[in-house]
Amino acid sequence: MWAIVPIKQFQFAKARLAPALDPGQRRDLMRAMAMDVLESLAATPGIERILVVSREPEVTALAAEVGASVLLEEEGGGLNGAVAQGAQLALEAGACGILVVHGDLPLATSAAFSAIIAAHCAAPAVTLVTDAEGQGSNCLACSPPDAIPFLFGRQSCPAHVAAARAKGIDAVVIRSPTLSLDVDSPADLEALLACEHGGRSVAFLRSSGIASRLALESVTTPAPVQVSRSIEGSA
Questions:
Q1: Taking a C-beta distance cutoff of 8 angstroms, is the pair 192, 185 a contact?
Q2: What 3-state DSSP class applies to 37?
Q3: Which residue from 71, 73, 65, 67 is spatially nearest to 49, judged by alpha carbons?
Q4: What confidence score (pLDDT) does residue 225 get?
Q5: What digits encode the pLDDT tens for the residues 57-77?
Q6: β pairing state of 49-54 and 69-72
Q7: Which of 9, 149, 153, 200 suits 83 as a labelling partner, its CA being 20 to 30 A distant?
């Protein structure tokens, strides 16, 4: 099985974290999260090859650290186009299946990825790991690589399940405590820092002083004042 990791250019990634992190901090966090994912995949038995699909210049060096390959993402295709590129290359190379993993899963572990592979049935098969809300697809295993179309975006988990059903495949949906957290908002940062495990991502947040600052802000921010009104009847 090949692992396909689409990674957005760091300068455009995680705009929703702007209230908590400046552009440089967002780049550093994205880099750390990507390495957490790549290192965990590299340590996972059953992953034959890791393919990063991206236009980010720094990705080549990051991929080299774990022996991953890089495929230049075509412009204009978005996330689904990037995944489709990787899947096509895997298919042409004879891969029996792919595991699509987003690059912003800071709690990723080889054990969590091994659990997906273990739950994945013989082809044709589709296995999904949802986000915390049960709507997104944080990981997607497909055998063969083109078993279903890629529909990442809002409510992608039910969309992928429906796409699998249309192909006569009963998709397996997994909830994983470690893979459900994708960092998109300041609230996700707080959830990440509350976890015991966090690899490079948590280490960066702590060593940079961001963790301490966020903790202080959460303590000093006053709770919203609720004003109650009594409405008297009019004559």
A1: no
A2: helix
A3: 67
A4: 47
A5: 999 999 999 999 999 999 999
A6: parallel
A7: 200
DSSP state of 14: -
pLDDT in tens, 161-182: 999 999 999 999 999 999 999 9
Of 27, 34, 29, 47, the residue nearest 7 (C-alpha) = 34
Q: How many angstroms separate the CA atoms of 159 and 154, rounded? A: 9
pLDDT band per the 50, 70, 90 thresholds, residue 196: confident
End-to-end CA distance of the chain: 77
Q: Which helix (H) or strand (E) holds 70?
A: strand 69-72
Domains in the chain, please, with CATH?
Answer: 2-219 (3.90.550.10)
Q: How far, in Å, CA of 38 to CA of 149, rounded?
A: 24
What are the tokens at 122? Answer: 């013989």
Q: What is the mean pLDDT of residues 178-198?
A: 90
Pairing mode, strands 137-143 and 125-130? antiparallel
Got the DSSP string for 83-150?
Answer: HHHHHHHHHHTT-S-EEEE-S--TT--HHHHHHHHHH--SSSEEEEEE-TTS-SEEEEEEESTTSS--
User: Rg (Cα) of the chain, in Å, rounded?
Assistant: 20
